Amino acid sequence: MKRIFLGLVTIVGAVSVMYIGVTGAFFSDTESSLANLFTAGELDLLVDNESYYNGNRCIDLPDDNPDAGFVWDGPADFPVPGTSCDTSWLEDNLNDGAETLHKFFNFTDIKPDDEGEDTISLHVQNDAWMCMEVALTSNDDVDCTDPENAADAENGACTEPNQDAWDGELAQLIQMIWWADDGDNVLEAGEPILSDNVETLYNLATTTPFIVALADSQNNAWGENGPVPADDIHYVAKGWCFGTLVATPLAEGDTGPQDRGSGFSCDGAGIGNAAQTDSTTLDVSFSAVQSRNNPGFLCEGEQCTFDELVDLLVATAKFENPEVATTQNWDVFDSPADGWNVEWRDADPGLFNGDARPVVAHLELHEGVLGAAFEGDQYAELDTDWGGPTSGTSGEPASVSIYRDFATVPGADYILRYHFAPRPSTPAADNNLEVKIEGVALDTTGPTAGGGGPIAWAERSVPFTAGDASTEIRFTDLGTANSLGTFLDNVRLYQISCPVQ
After folding, report:
1. What is the pTM of this model?
2. DSSP-based three-state secondary structure for 201
3. Of 461, 93, 44, 121, which is closest to residue 294 (Cα–Cα)?
């Protein structure tokens, strides 16, 4: 019996082999994801500078491509020997390791009444926070001429050369002004002053570095919102005078200083001889820091990483509840909805096409009607609707204001972040969003026209300091009230609070 059983097994095995060889294949499918890849992005801050000295545009042409640079358009006999003309350059790094490639100031024979103006262009490839720092590194007598000795006699004799790097008078006699420029090389009315108006170089940066938050989580020198966008060019300008500088901003919209004044005046009268042969040096640096995952970055003060920020907002602020269940993929919900109180923006208009406006305001939520939400499945439209997807009424005045209170720490700093988008295929007048913190308007986004799709989301940041233990945050549609416009999603509130180390 045992032998028979083994023989049977052998026969079955042989048959099995023959069966496979005859049939050839079963239903099958193979899906392959090939060459999966992670590539780190880059954040390379590049700087260029356009420099004017005594009203003339100045640059040394690049050795490798003399046709690519700026040109000197000053007199043929200027610059004079000893006065460098290399303070302009095309987009580049400022140094190469320990070797300095470019200098914003390199003037070795200045006289009273000399002046200069520069416009610095800043470029980054990814969204970034950006800071500037100026530090005075010396203010030296260098040498003691007879006129300087006579001038210095009132305040003590000139110090012997190389005895003290801080015994000079030149930094006290150079006045400067820095501003956020629009790129036309001139100080214009309305352009933000970064240096608290006119300062001497000595007062500006001798005790502590002069630090400017060009764009951090609480400041933006250009009056914009949030970090410097990738591939946008932003400009910082500076004017200096060996003498008395007076700001004379020009009207906005003209051409550059080669065609008109430079936006300030310089008067070297009364300088005297105290600064003869003196020399002053300074360092100028710009830094860029990634903004992604780094919402609390500050150019000065205690820095917090993204994970160290305290997130005070729960997911219900992202408009995921109530859930839209209509076949039209949008619906309206009575106030309060998703934790937000909802109010009609305008006074009751009475009837519209025979319909009366509901007493209780509605929040309108979409689930993929005109494009994807930025976060999750749903987003809000703040020019909402009276009757919802089954109503025959359209175009009714239905703009709303939504608000809610958040627990806050009095005196603590916060950042409100949200995503705004214009409704696709609508004019700019339909898409305008206002943010109020405790009744004070701190941000307005729009008017912005909506393209043909998909939805174009843009993140906004609103820094503020809490005054009480409870803070009201309110979003209001400021667009034309016609039931079309102003999308909102992904609202978050962060407290800038680093853990104790």
Report:
1. 0.58
2. helix
3. 461
